[in-house]
Design a protein that fits this description.
Layout lengths: L1 H14 L3 H8 L14 H8 L1 H25 L6 H14 L12 H11 L1 H18 L4 H21 L8 H17 L1 H9 L11
Helix pairs in contact: 1-4, 1-5, 3-4, 4-5, 4-6, 5-6, 6-7, 6-8, 6-9, 7-8, 8-9
């Protein structure tokens, strides 16, 4: 129990690092007052440009990878230490204590989590994201993100159902579905704009 609490707490602290907010402050602004008012990589890219957006995405992605692979392994004597680390990291990103528990939508950090827990579903999800973003929906990040995390969960479920060698366990499959639900719920404003036809295409943003 003590180890579980330590893993959860450390992973939460890593996940709660508000990279988008810090990048904004470095550039002399509060990213929460600009664009979509979100601290995620998409809004950072929209307001501060491609390079800052890429940096924010990579840092948020690592917030998922590091807890699962390193913190989880550090306390690897627990059966589900990686799962606990994954939960802590995502909770930290979505509900960071430093920003009054108002964080990002969880996409990049969840992707990092999935890399550590279920590499094959991650690969499938990334392919779906790229196809959706560049071809099917022409630059609409919200649709590509929601679709990719849903496909990751479904891929993990199918792999486990049919007994594929690389299939994750049922706990991991369940976590992937929970992550997909969280991300979709966090995109409620995007869904509203999609219904109204007001969601912007990322490809329309000037470099």
């Amino acid at each position: 129990m003590v180890n579980a609490i330590i893993v959860l707490a450390l992973s939460y602290l890593v996940g709660s690092i508000p990279n988008g907010y810090l990048i904004g402050k470095f550039n002399g602004l509060d990213i929460r007052h600009h664009g979509s008012k979100n601290i995620g990589a998409t809004n950072v890219r929209r307001i501060l440009g491609r390079d800052w957006g890429i940096l924010c995405f990579v840092l948020d992605f690592l917030k998922g990878v590091v807890p699962v692979i390193f913190i989880g392994r550090l306390f690897g004597n627990m059966e589900y230490s990686a799962i606990i680390a994954a939960i802590g990291a995502v909770l930290g990103h979505v509900f960071p204590v430093w920003l009054g528990f108002h964080g990002g939508k969880g996409v990049a950090t969840s992707l990092g989590v999935v890399v550590g827990l279920a590499p094959f579903p991650f690969f499938v999800g990334i392919v779906i994201w790229l196809l959706s973003f560049y071809f099917a929906f022409r630059g609409v990040v919200s649709i590509a993100s929601m679709l990719s995390v849903s496909i990751m969960a479904l891929t993990a479920f199918v792999c486990k159902l049919f007994g594929f060698r690389s299939a994750p366990d049922w706990i991991t499959v369940t976590l992937l579905f929970i992550l997909a639900i969280i991300i979709i719920v966090r995109h409620k404003e995007n869904i509203k704009r999609l219904r109204e036809g007001k969601e912007n295409s990322f490809l329309e943003i000037k470099k």
